[in-house]
Design a protein that fits this description.
alpha/beta; UDP-galactose 4-epimerase, domain 1; 11 helices; about 20% strand; binds uridine-diphosphate-N-acetylglucosamine
């Protein structure tokens, strides 16, 4: 049987690079396309070193409709995984049009090109942000979505709906939305990982940058929440585990095992971990002391969210297996690798 080709938009980024590795190792031909708007070539080079070959890399912007059409003409794309998007929650509030234009237009162009080719399997990179502050925990895929609290979150909700409606309307288009909880960590080789530009918004990159001395002090946003230790609860999912969920989902689409034309799966561990527990675990497993302090709550943060991942286990045969200890060790190895390179 000939190898299937998967297009990975945003394949040079944090999640896209890990997914490229896992798909390639599972036997797929991967075509990466990225405009490098929020990353450099570090992860792509790391991917090449891990794989021992260079997957095709097309520098392009998915907002360029002609370029997207050309890509679909050039390669026999069996499935596309769409990561290419802006993702800074705060910036999306001050620059909503930038977010709506980029995140929606790129996805519309992909769906248009897929439709033009007579169909395609489309996997959309969604987020637990669509659940907002859920009334019951853990959240299942049936838990109602809440109005998004930021334009970024809104683009995730809207893209889910655009995919659902396209599947309904256009024969040959099949869709899966994976709702990620909090992806963290790095590849065990420490050759690929998260490379935020400027001051990190997310917790783990801020922790590792503080530990290495790039940042002076980590602020823990809020210690008066109604949780066991007063800090927020999240479902931190290892990036390699998360990447493997994509391999399972792509396999399900390509083998015709979907039960509906459009499906949604939570990608999380099912285990809530507090911000404080994460910090303590990081210090313990890596033998480092972190400079941190309590600070006021960060506006827009939900108190607690974690997944019920049982649907993914049942239907995709996927389950998170890496321990938080290993994930936080990998995050630290990656930060040290980057510091050595600088
Ligand atoms: C955010 C986004 C989510 C996105 C994810 C990954 C929202 C509401 N959240 O999730 O959509 O998919 O990033 O990009 O849209 N924290 C600190 N100090 C810090 C940084 C974070 O205490 O310096 C705390 C936060 O208050 C929060 C937890 O750590 O309680 C996790 O924060 P973060 O890593 O930013 O992820 P989320 O806000 O959960």
């Amino acid at each position: 049987m000939s190898k299937k080709t998967v297009l990975v938009s945003g394949g040079a980024g944090f999640i896209g690079s890990h997914v490229t590795v896992e798909l390639s190792q599972a036997g797929y031909d991967v075509v990466i396309a990225d405009n490098f708007s929020n990353c450099d070539e570090t992860n792509y080079k790391g991917v090449c070193r891990i794989l021992g070959f260079e997957p095709p890399l097309i520098p392009m912007d998915f907002c360029d409709k002609a370029a997207v059409y050309a890509l679909f003409e050039k390669y026999p794309i069996d499935a596309v995984i769409h990561f290419a998007a802006f993702k800074a929650v705060g910036e999306s509030v001050s620059e909503p049009l930038k977010y709506y234009r980029n995140n929606l237009l790129s996805f519309l162009n992909i769906l248009d090109a897929a439709k033009h080719k007579g169909g395609c399997n489309v996997l959309f990179s969604s987020s637990a942000t669509v659940y907002g502050e859920a009334e019951t925990l853990p959240v299942t895929e049936q838990t109602p979505r809440q109005p998004a609290t930021s334009p970024y979150g809104n683009t995730k909700t809207m893209c889910e709906d655009i995919l659902r409606d396209s599947v309904r309307a256009y024969p040959g288009i099949f869709g899966i939305a994976l709702r990620y909880f909090n992806p963290i960590g790095a590849h065990p080789t420490a050759l690929i990982g998260e490379l935020p530009r400027g001051v990190p918004n997310n917790l783990v990159p801020f922790i590792t940058q503080t530990a290495i001395g790039k940042r002076e002090c980590l602020s823990v946003f809020g210690n008066d929440y109604p949780t066991p230790d007063g800090t927020c609860l999240r479902d931190f999912i290892d990036i390699v585990d998360l990447a493997k969920a994509h391999v399972s989902a792509v396999g399900r689409m390509l083998d015709g095992r979907m039960k509906q034309g459009y499906e949604i799966f939570n990608v999380g561990t099912g285990r809530p971990v507090s911000v404080m527990e994460l910090i303590n675990t990081f210090e313990r497993v890596n033998g480092v002391k972190l400079n941190w302090k309590f600070a006021p709550r960060r506006p827009g943060d939900v108190v607690s969210i974690w997944a019920d991942p049982s649907l993914a286990e049942r239907e995709l045969g996927w389950k998170a297996v890496r321990s938080l200890d290993d994930t936080l060790k990998a995050a630290w190895e990656w930060e040290k690798y980057i510091a050595d390179k600088a």
